[in-house]
Queue: 2 jobs
Job 1
Amino acid sequence: MNPVSEEFFHQSTIDLAKALLGCILVNETNEGITSGYIVETESYMGPYDRAAHSYNNRRTKRTEIMFGKAGLAYTYTMHTHCLINVVSAGIDEPHAVLIRALEPYTGVDLMTKRRPVDKIKNLTNGPGKLTKAMGITMEDYGRPLFEPPLYITPGIIPEEIMEGKRIGIDNTGEARDYPWRFWIKDNLFVSR
DNA sequence: ACTGCGATTTGC
DNA sequence: CAAATCGCAGTT
């Protein structure tokens, strides 16, 4: 399957977060190819979203890539984990979509080798888990997600999309209640 | 639900 | 330097 076009990323951050559901995230590394269906995402709208790193257009070395064009990867380290976001919106609009969970597709052997688990369900059902299973690191910061080695391809069309409050952002005032988390209904690999 | 772990970034 | 952080795993 070929990557999506760069134009795919040219839609509003909310629309992009929904459009990514059912798409396949692929990573080609020296160890082999892994991929998985995206089943859960969250939108972060920097300028007016207290929960975003780029809130109030805060521009630092870390957030710099979000001010760039849509379709780039924004990776960052959180505790001991690496998390991956898709940069959204236009130049100088620091929006992003966090990829929170995947359903493993190809390269499951390699993923379980990188991240041993007792049940497959626990392999990629969280943002820090899926990056480790797929071998995504800070090396991928700023990579375009519409060409190899790390890219998105069309997958399936979700039957029904659910939406709700985001996770892990409790101390951020009103922003915590914004319904900017999206997931595929009844999918086993959604994080919670 | 509640802990401990833990490292990078950021602001004081 | 100290505080904060878009998690995870293991235990009540």
Job 2
Amino acid sequence: MDFNDADLRSRYWHTTSHIMAHAVKRLYPETRLGIGPSIDQGFYYDFDHETTFSPDELKNIEQEMKKIIREKLPLERFELPRQEALDLMEEKGEIYKIELIHDLPEDEVISFYRQGDFVDLCSGPHLEHTGQVKAVKLTQAAGAYWRGSEKNKMLQRIYGISFPDRQMLIDYIQQQAEARKRDHNKLGRELGFFTTTDYIGQGLPIMLPKGAKVLQILERFVEDEEEKRGYQLTKTPFLAKSDLYKISGHWQHYQDGMFVMGDPEKEAEEEVLALRPMTCPFQFQAYLQKTRSYRDLPIRYSETSTLFRNESSGEMHGLIRVRQFTISEGHIICTPEHLDKEFSDSLELARFMLKTIGLYEDVSYRFSLWDPKDTDKYIGSAAQWDAAQSAMRRILDHMDLDYTVADGEAAFYGPKLDIQIRNVFGKEDTLITVQIDFQLAERFGMTYTDKEGHKQHPFIIHRTSIGCYERTLALLIEKYAGALPLWMAPEQARVLPISEKHITQAEQLAEKLRQHGLRVTVDQRDEKVGKKIREAQMDKLQYMLILGDQEVEAGTVSVRSRKEGDMGVMPVGDLINRLLRESNERVN
RNA sequence: GCCGCUGUGGCUCAGGGGUAGAGCAAUUCACUCGUAAUGAAUAGGUCGUGAGUUCAAUUCUCACCAGCGGCUCCA
């Protein structure tokens, strides 16, 4: 059995989910079945069950699954005409399956799989018999809405995973434990990058000096790079009157996600302000401050922009989902002729950033379209959406980019190309996004005069280059397990004097390195050098500089690198050159 | 917002209806030390917050707050 084969793996896990459902039905016959697919890593099944399954109950289910596996029950496929299929599910009381059958197209073949006395509506495919599943573990129970809609009932979901042999399961569990050690939310707090407090609140992290330093390094790098690429920096206000958001459509389509100050009911008498959830309308105001010619375009605005979004309580997570964050935001205002180049340049800039920080290999691309069935969520007409989407599709295909298409994931004003990344738990999030907008220029009355002297509405590209800094930092911490590459490390080297009598020289050495712009500290504590090394290692320091009698006398320094260990002594000048080269070349 | 788990000194954790312990960290002292933890002493907590039950609550119940895993939503 080749478990590297994705199809086989998914069949394997899908069959395991049937075994789990079978076990649940044996133990809790009243339970009704939802759906139970295989996923990236394992499988789940949703059950309509009175209470959440406790860890003990999961153990029992696991035991029952082992019995079913030992019974080596064959999985038999059979098909039924629609009415008979409905009758069968009716007889078993499977109301959710009935709903699924009703939603199948008229001409769809309706198939079932049977193992022993358990029958499930399913298109398959499956393994031949339950005995082929060897090592099983149910990993967690969680609530999940029926058909993914919060308007529906919440079912009880059980996640699990299975493998063809015991050792693979042990390895998997081990691997998960290792991954968890990289979790930015744990490591980032331990290493002193950020913290949160009850008094400030959820989703509002405090960036401690170390975290703040990394963000500053990234921000300066991005601002400088964007300036080289023709962007102009703006600094726009963090809040605005509701009037602004009414024009942009945020008031109608995004208000739930905004912090509003004042009472919208009394708007006639009182001022109502809101913190900005996006930068676009602000930079549009900058564009509007004078009349524009086609000769002025493209105009590329960028801003290291702090945004505020009122996320609901259960959605916050470490630095990945927060209520206040800072993004490398920018808007390119251009003519139709510029669109292709500006869009592909924006994407190229984002990919350059990913390469520089070392995440280039870890991302996937998602082309996010609107949902024409849910037009209330969006502004603009179907014709405008078709135009923007087909323009983006044309550019993407021209760039030979490997992407997936996601319906209903667009912004309310236009389609997006999202650069997706997975965190240490395998959960996918958007890191970077580049969007095409054919709508907001018109709403804001943004125009330029074309060659013929006619007023035209420009096209707008909404884009971020490195994404939101907090989220990017979170993924960097996970990628490098806290040991950030030298160029972005908050503390690049630490001088470790052997004893108290070397402290003065240690300070002099550190000062000399600082003169070259290196971020260096001295461990002045009255501790043995072994302990100082151990703690520097745990603090993820890239370089430890040990200074004792020998080095002081010879004018050298003993260098220990995190990666290579003891590197022996070297002249201070050599050390400086080495550190500067590694830092300036942004070696990852 | 929804389903569930968790909350004990700065950190990791033990305990448990009769007002609390360990290791690390911190402070002080001694040692002046050569590549992943020197030793000793001292100090530090109204057990997340607020109600309720009880003679008595950190322990039981409820609510709230915060952290975690999912769902929904999203950069």
